[in-house]
């Protein structure tokens, strides 16, 4: 029997998203119906709503950082089970594509998703953001996208693991492979950047430099493990990073903004043979011109990090355990808790730089 749900739907690029009723067909084979408990409001959802990544695909069911409870399962589903608390992953390796078959499931080219069985009241099929859709009371996902966690963990904090936290921590641990005793610089200290800082701290980096133009965000970054801060409005951040590292530069740099100028700064603040990881989603259009001789002489690596090169079945429980142990600070990432009908204001607060993460709370089951 179809489920009636409510969710935040974006119908037109740039227009406000609205809470609407929609229906969800029964889970098909290998699919699960999840009642959402909490969802983080990520900058990617703002980009989707504004049409930054293109004008096709509307109407969208927004949201892709979600924690919830499985309410129904389709044929062939053994895990998760009804009643399980889960974090939703927007990448679920298929196990059969060219990347999975050579042992690179983090690059899966055929990530598993549910069939599109969610429809608005006017009959239009909804396109869930990144194959999930979490700004809603219920959503439908592939069973492999629903990663079980302990039922006593707080859903608001756990929802953030589903994208921003995993992306940042994974960029440090997996994309860059930060080593103990090394140095790192992080450009952009929002939710993802602060998660990179935490990942670098967990990996044992001893110098972690936060770079931003917002003094409030730089102060927040110290709370997540930054040992130094650089306000890019107050001078050349590359020169300051060099000064803080004995003139050498950092072993690892991370760009979490998605802008050409900050990527260039991240590239050239490195020590010889250092690694630069590009995380920020730029959208179509921006280009970067580089002095190739300078880049060659510096050497090292430029990596693009998708989802922190994570494996959700391995890494979501790991990050949840670190949270329980007090090693991963998620409480301080939750700047505000809101309801579904406050999503537009959450986007505005994000653009004003007032929040790291607003979290939509849809249930008192905490």
Descriptive keywords:
alpha/beta; seven-stranded mixed sheet; 366 residues; six-stranded parallel sheet; Quinone Oxidoreductase, Chain A, domain 1; 27% helix
CATH architectural designation of the largest domain: Alpha-Beta Complex
The first-to-last residue Cα distance is: 28 Å
- Number of helices in the DSSP assignment: 9
How many beta-strand runs?
18
> Biggest β-sheet, characterized?
7 strands, mixed
Q: Rg to the nearest angstrom?
A: 20 Å
Low-confidence stretches: none
Mean pLDDT: 96
CATH topology descriptor of the largest domain: Quinone Oxidoreductase, Chain A, domain 1
**What is the CATH class designation of the largest domain?**
Alpha Beta
Q: How many domain modules?
A: 2
- CATH H-level superfamily title of the largest domain: Medium-chain alcohol dehydrogenases, catalytic domain
Task: Report the principal-axis shape.
Answer: globular
Indicate the proportion of strand residues: 25-35%
| Relative helix content | 25-40%
* Category from helices, strands and their pairing: alpha/beta
List the helices and strands and how they pair.
Elements: E1 3-10, E2 18-24, E3 31-40, H1 43-50, E4 60-61, E5 65-73, E6 85-88, E7 118-120, E8 127-128, E9 138-142, E10 146-149, H2 155-176, E11 183-187, H3 191-203, E12 207-212, H4 215-224, E13 228-231, H5 237-244, E14 250-255, H6 260-268, E15 270-278, H7 292-298, E16 301-304, H8 312-324, E17 334-338, H9 343-351, E18 357-361
Parallel strand pairs: 4-8, 11-12, 11-14, 12-13, 14-15, 15-16, 17-18
Antiparallel strand pairs: 1-2, 1-4, 2-7, 3-5, 3-9, 3-18, 5-6, 6-10
Helix pairs in contact: 2-3, 2-8
């Amino acid at each position: 029997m179809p489920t009636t749900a409510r969710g935040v739907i974006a119908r037109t690029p740039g227009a406000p998203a609205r809470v609407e009723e929609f229906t969800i067909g029964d889970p098909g084979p290998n699919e699960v119906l999840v009642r959402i408990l909490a969802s983080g409001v990520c900058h990617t959802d703002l980009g989707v709503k504004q049409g930054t990544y293109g004008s096709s695909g509307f109407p969208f069911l927004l949201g892709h950082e979600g924690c919830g409870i499985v309410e129904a399962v389709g044929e062939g589903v053994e895990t998760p089970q009804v009643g399980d608390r889960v974090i939703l992953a927007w990448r679920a390796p298929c196990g059969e594509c060219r990347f999975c078959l050579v042992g690179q499931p983090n690059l899966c080219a055929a990530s598993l998703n549910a069939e599109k069985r969610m429809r608005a009241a006017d009959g239009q099929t909804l396109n869930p953001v990144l194959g999930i859709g979490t700004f809603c009371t219920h959503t439908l996902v592939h069973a492999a996208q629903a990663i079980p966690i302990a039922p006593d963990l707080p859903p608001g904090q756990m929802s953030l693991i589903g994208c921003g936290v995993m992306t940042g921590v994974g960029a440090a641990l997996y994309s860059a492979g930060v080593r103990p005793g090394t140095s790192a610089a992080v450009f952009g200290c929002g939710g993802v950047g602060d998660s990179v800082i935490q990942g670098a701290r967990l990996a044992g980096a001893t110098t972690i430099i936060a770079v931003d133009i917002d003094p409030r965000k730089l102060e927040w970054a110290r709370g997540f493990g930054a040992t130094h801060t650089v306000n890019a409005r107050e001078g050349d951040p590359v020169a300051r990073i060099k000064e803080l590292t004995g003139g050498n530069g950092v072993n690892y740099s991370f760009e979490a903004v998605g802008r050409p100028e900050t990527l260039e700064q991240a590239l050239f603040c490195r020590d010889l043979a250092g690694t630069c990881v590009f995380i920020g989603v730029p959208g179509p259009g921006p280009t970067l011109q580089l002095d190739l001789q300078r880049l060659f002489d510096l050497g090292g690596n430029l990596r693009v990090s998708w989802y922190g090169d994570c494996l959700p079945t391995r890494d979501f429980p790991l990050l949840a355990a670190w949270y329980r142990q007090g090693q991963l600070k998620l409480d301080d990432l939750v700047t505000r808790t809101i309801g579904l009908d406050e999503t537009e204001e959450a986007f505005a607060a994000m653009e004003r730089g007032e929040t790291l993460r607003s979290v939509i709370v849809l249930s008192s089951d905490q």
